[in-house]
Structure formats: structure tokens, C-alpha cells
Amino acid sequence: METLSCRYKNTCTVTLETRRRCSACRLNKCLRYGMKRERLIKAEKKSIERRQCREERTNISAINEQNSQLQLLTSPDSYSPQTSSQIQRAILNSDDLQRIEMVQTAFEKRIELARDNLLWNPTVHSTNLLEFLNSRSVPAMRLVAFFKQIPEFTQLNSEDKFILTKYNLMPLLVPSFALSFKKDTRQVIETNTDIPWDESAFQQAIGTNYLLQIKPIFAPFVEIVQYDQKIMQLFLIVLFLSKGLSTGEDITEPILRDYMAVYRAHNFYTKLLWNYMEVTHGIKVAYRIFSKLIFQYLRWLNLRRTIALDVQQSLPRTEQSNIFPVMQSLFHI
């Protein structure tokens, strides 16, 4: 009995339900009923040892699992396939290749298709914040023209198309500008007849502080486009078809009417983007590019929310009413 003690001065009630709560009191009760002391102590010790072994195995298993997860997150090579039998290799069939070419052509045709719907003359400079916001309708309408050529989007419910456009379009402008960025002049120019956009234009509209924060986010997008512009074109579609991009903003996003149709379209282009990157550039490069795209886009979303709030607060109510109605909707004003 030296190895067993009761925390409650041997006053525990031992029943069928409570017998495992206090080994000392259970042993005393067994002795009172005539059981042999040595045999009971030996059996109790074995029971305690078995319970301790189970707890140790559980703890060791938990520690090993945590270490494995930590290694997976921190090791740069953790995503590399070990053997060809461990993963399903990505493939691109003829339909996939045709769809990728269709996406590239659709992006090029967006300029011409949007020409008659532009609300702002792209050959005119913007001179103040109000004009800057209205001039953003040009790349916005061109992006809409791009997405309208995507079959999976055009087949969606009309209300769902409106929701995706209203809540997902404007955040895509900055990554889409990477596709029109001229590195030699450091300007964004979608077509030769447009007034080019450079750092001074953004600085005048949003200030030096925000410009300095945007530049390290925008630079990786440019690098990826210069490496392979098809990746960014497909990525724009994936983002556009993603429900909930405005989460975190002070707005309520409606529920989709046909969530599964949007999910299938989103899943199709996500898989197409991944397979294209893996087949074309290899799985290691694919992981690296995809991780960079997601990371930089999330950084941009956080910064954009701050900029949008600041812009709305700095623009007088009287001038907000002069923003194009379609842009008021896209800006959630």
C-alpha cells in the first residue's frame, strides 16, 4: 500500500462507475472483502503501468505528427514527389490545350470587344482622384469582356454572374496590369492608343505611401507574366470564379443561386492551371509559382481594403455621386 495513496484521506465511494477514480480506495475495499493483498497490488500495478504506456505512446505519436507537419511546412523540398507511383501525374489533352489557347485569344480580343462600352476615353489623362476612379472603368470593362468569352462563366445563372462581377472584378485589376506592363518604360499600357500609366499616375491618385506598398506586391506578378503569361491569364479566371474574395470587407456578399455550377467552373480552371504549370514547367516550379501567386494576391487584398477605405473617406460625398454608376457598384459606394 506504500505506492498507492488517496488524495481524499481514504473516503472515496467505490462503485462500478467510480472504481477507476481511486486505486487506493478500490484496493482497500477489495481487501475488506477477503481478496489477497499481494495479488491485488500486483494486478493494480500492472494496470497502472499499462495505462502509462498507452499515454506515452499517444504522446509520442502526437509529437511525431507535429514534427512531420512542421517539416512539411518549413522544408523547401517537402512538396517534391518521392516516386512516380506516389502521385498522379498531370496531363494535358487536346481539349485542354485548345482551351488554354482560347483563353489567350480571349484576353487579346478583350480590347476590341469592350471598345463600344467604354465610359471613359482611354486617350485622356486623369487629373484628380475622381477622374482616376472613373478612368479605372476602362480596364474593368475590358476584363468583363475577357470573362464574357469564357464558356463556363457565360453558362452561369445571370444573378451569379452579377455577384461574381460585382464582388470579384475590381481586386483583379492590379494583377491584370502585370500582363500589360512594359518593363523597359515601366508603364502599364493595354493598347498603343491608351494613355500609359506609370508610377506618377498612381502616386498622384493614392499617394506615395500606398505606391511603395504596392510595388513589392506587383513585382512578383510581373516576373510570373514575363516567365509565362498564360499562367496569369488562367489565374485571373480562377480568382474571378472564386466565391468570397470580398470576405473581410465591410460588405455583405450575397449567396450564389447555383453554388455547384460556380464550384465546377472554378474547379475546372484551377485544375487546368495546375496541370498546365506542372506539364510545362515541372512540379517544383508549379508549386513555387502557385504559392507565390496566392501569397501575393492575399497581400494585395489586404492592402486594397485599406486603400479603398481611405479613398472613400478622402473623397467628398458630393464627388462620390459623380463616379460612374457602374463604378459605384464595383467600388461598393
Automatic annotation (TrEMBL):
<dbReference type="GO" id="GO:0000978">
    <property type="term" value="F:RNA polymerase II cis-regulatory region sequence-specific DNA binding"/>
</dbReference>
<dbReference type="InterPro" id="IPR000536">
    <property type="entry name" value="Nucl_hrmn_rcpt_lig-bd"/>
</dbReference>
<dbReference type="InterPro" id="IPR001628">
    <property type="entry name" value="Znf_hrmn_rcpt"/>
</dbReference>
<keyword id="KW-0804">Transcription</keyword>
<dbReference type="GO" id="GO:0030154">
    <property type="term" value="P:cell differentiation"/>
</dbReference>
<keyword id="KW-0863">Zinc-finger</keyword>
<feature type="domain" description="Nuclear receptor">
    <location>
        <begin position="1"/>
        <end position="42"/>
    </location>
</feature>
<keyword id="KW-0862">Zinc</keyword>
<keyword id="KW-0675">Receptor</keyword>
<feature type="domain" description="NR LBD">
    <location>
        <begin position="64"/>
        <end position="333"/>
    </location>
</feature>
<dbReference type="InterPro" id="IPR050234">
    <property type="entry name" value="Nuclear_hormone_rcpt_NR1"/>
</dbReference>
<keyword id="KW-0805">Transcription regulation</keyword>
<protein>
    <recommendedName>
        <fullName>Nuclear receptor domain-containing protein</fullName>
    </recommendedName>
</protein>
<dbReference type="GO" id="GO:0000122">
    <property type="term" value="P:negative regulation of transcription by RNA polymerase II"/>
</dbReference>
<dbReference type="GO" id="GO:0004879">
    <property type="term" value="F:nuclear receptor activity"/>
</dbReference>
<dbReference type="GO" id="GO:0045944">
    <property type="term" value="P:positive regulation of transcription by RNA polymerase II"/>
</dbReference>
<keyword id="KW-0539">Nucleus</keyword>
<keyword id="KW-0238">DNA-binding</keyword>
<dbReference type="InterPro" id="IPR035500">
    <property type="entry name" value="NHR-like_dom_sf"/>
</dbReference>
<keyword id="KW-0479">Metal-binding</keyword>
<dbReference type="InterPro" id="IPR013088">
    <property type="entry name" value="Znf_NHR/GATA"/>
</dbReference>
<dbReference type="GO" id="GO:0008270">
    <property type="term" value="F:zinc ion binding"/>
</dbReference>
<dbReference type="Pfam" id="PF00105">
    <property type="entry name" value="zf-C4"/>
</dbReference>
